[in-house]
Design goal:
Number of helices of chain A: 14
Distance between the termini of chain A: 66 Å
CATH superfamily of the largest domain in chain A: Nicotinate-nucleotide-dimethylbenzimidazole phosphoribosyltransferase (CobT), large domain
Number of domains of chain A: 2
Oligomer: homodimer
Radius of gyration of chain A: 20 Å
CATH class of the largest domain in chain A: Alpha Beta
Low-confidence stretches of chain A: none
Number of strands of chain A: 6
CATH architecture of the largest domain in chain A: 3-Layer(aba) Sandwich
Strand order of the largest sheet of chain A: 3-2-1-4-5-6
Helix content of chain A: 40-55%
Largest interface: A-B, 70 and 69 residues
Shape of chain A: globular
């Protein structure tokens, strides 16, 4: 169910400079030394600019996790078999995964989306959508991962999910992913968009050893040559070596930004999805909040290209939106500090003195 | 009301190696790639060893904030006047400060303790204790900040508060501080315990400019010479240049560790308090959880001496326990992931394959 107009063509509104300035001014009135909340202050100001309110509050935080399989997994580019994707989807739906736990810890909703798992479909529910483009992508080591039409459908799935979630009250969105083989797809997209050799962006993913990493790089380099991708045509890159869940995360981020909903991006895969989406709609970057620095080496490059600095550095490399879930707490902390703290006037606290 | 035996003399139990091993083994059975939760895994293992349970759960998290004034503030070592200490205490009690907000965000209780504010005492309540040693310390630039007996009383106050809080169900304790002038006291303790010149450990605190920082360092160096402190006698250091809230934080940490309750330390002041306490009872270190790396330069040295690596690096320099409050979420996330996630067996997820 693609919308009439493609999500990648809809305009993203500019940030609200007045709201940002209002937030900045309010910080200077609150009962704390100037600047003493460090990066939380700048975070709240950015969130204010995105929401168009000087004192934004988040009422509903949602983590959208997109799940799909990858034909390239047949090339031994993952430490786990493809069957794990469907098994982990069952685990998500049963509430047993890391992201289920973290959503409970941080008070966020979850929505899981099957964008193309290679298994019998599971029954839908309010928090589980089946929107399959196909049963996994094709193996990009021998053919294009998807057609351009499939890429557009996968992006539209993400947009559809984001819009429905926002219509239901979500005002802060985190994106996450699950899909055996998807660090290979993300590495291929990143190498293609940045012109770097695969060896520079490839890492162990869920746990490849050095030989496995080298094979993954070789598979990607060969595919980039064979598929004839053009970095100036992002759709050729996404269709050639992408993944359905990566495309959907990109669509979700674009749709959220169009509605002024901040997008908290997780680790390597989600960041590459955002990088792709920003190649299509550069203003998206203004609505992105980086969460953590993943152990996956390509993550650093993707963040640099987006000009984003993560807030957490915990050596996570799990995906599912786990780093983004933790970042939701920092977003809530930053905005609630800005909104709830007393001013110097209200608390009758003396302001700083000149001591030298 | 000091206990019969000094908290600094009571033994801290060794970590439970069996519980730690149980936690480590459980991580390897959970539905995620080995090691993919990064530092959260090691954090949960440490917390398991402290609690003596392979799957610890925290039922009640408390942030204890100790408040006191400093005679040395008269020497222009702070950007704010001493009157701000009492005003901020009122702000804490009215719920308008940063730590009040963060406690609400992370679902923690708070307890505020007046260990020696230089103002008319405020009325006590369940979450506000008045346990004044004196109305502020004496100015350590001209005399000893406190007597040894006062130092022992302030340490005992912290222990009393920690024990009462633990008796009421607290199983995870964070310590924080408020006291105009207390970065000067903490810097003096740190310089004394480490033998470093004040210039190496002193920073802007709540916002001194370069001239103010230089004056603060000169005041401290002169005091360290004049007071004749002996690093091998930690009580001489605490009495000579310390603060009541610093002593109380040290006592609280020791009492908590004696009861196997992990202690989450905040920024520079709380870390120096812990460093002092570890000089008295070295095993305390095993029960400490660092939270964030403060912008105050001496914090790095204090953490290094304790052998602790913080989890957050957000440029905070507010005190009050604000960084520790955020760290409570990571402690809860780590232990709930360990406890709540499904195992590979439960979720019927295939384990990793050998791919090379």
């Amino acid at each position: 169910m693609a919308p009439d107009r493609d999500v990648t063509e809809l305009e993203i509104p500019p940030l609200d400079a007045g709201a940002r300035e209002g937030a900045r001014r309010r910080w200077s009135t609150l009962t704390k030394p100037e600047g003493s909340l460090g990066r939380l202050e700048e975070l709240a100001e950015r969130l204010a600019a995105m929401r168009g309110e000087a004192r934004p509050r988040f009422r509903r935080k949602t983590i959208a996790v997109f799940v799909a399989d990858h034909g390239v997994a047949r090339q031994g580019v993952s430490a786990y078999p493809s069957s794990v994707t469907a098994a982990m989807l069952d685990n998500f739906l049963a509430g047993g995964s890391a992201i289920n736990t973290l959503a409970r810890v941080v008070g966020a909703e979850t929505v899981f989306v099957d964008v193309g798992v290679d298994a019998e479909p599971r029954s839908e529910s309010e928090r589980f959508w089946v929107r399959r483009v196909a049963r996994g992508t094709r193996d990009f080591s021998s053919e294009s991962a998807m057609t351009r039409a499939e890429a557009r459908r996968a992006v539209a799935v993400g947009a559809e999910v984001a819009r429905a979630t926002i219509d239901a009250g979500t005002d802060l969105l985190a994106t996450g992913d699950m899909g055996i083989g998807n660090t290979a797809a993300a590495s291929a997209i990143l190498a293609s968009l940045t012109g770097r050799p695969a060896a520079e962006v490839v890492g162990p993913g869920t746990g490849l050893d050095a030989r496995g990493v080298a094979r993954k790089a070789a598979v990607i380099d060969a595919a980039l040559r064979a598929r004839g991708l053009d970095a100036s045509d992002p759709w050729s890159v996404l269709a050639g070596v992408g993944g359905f869940e990566i495309a959907a995360m990109a669509g979700a981020a674009l749709a959220a930004a169009q509605r002024r909903v901040p997008v908290v991006i997780d680790g390597f895969i989600a960041t590459v999805a955002a990088l792709w989406a920003a190649a299509v709609q550069p203003r998206l970057v203004e609505y992105l909040v980086a969460s953590h620095r993943s152990a996956e080496p390509g993550h650093r490059l993707a963040l640099e290209r987006l000009g984003l600095e993560p807030y957490l550095d915990l050596g996570l490399r799990l995906g599912e939106g786990t780093g983004a879930a933790l970042q939701l707490v920092l977003c809530e902390a930053a905005t609630r500090l800005l909104d709830e703290m007393a001013t110097f006037e209200e608390a009758q606290v003396a302001r700083r003195i000149r001591t030298s």
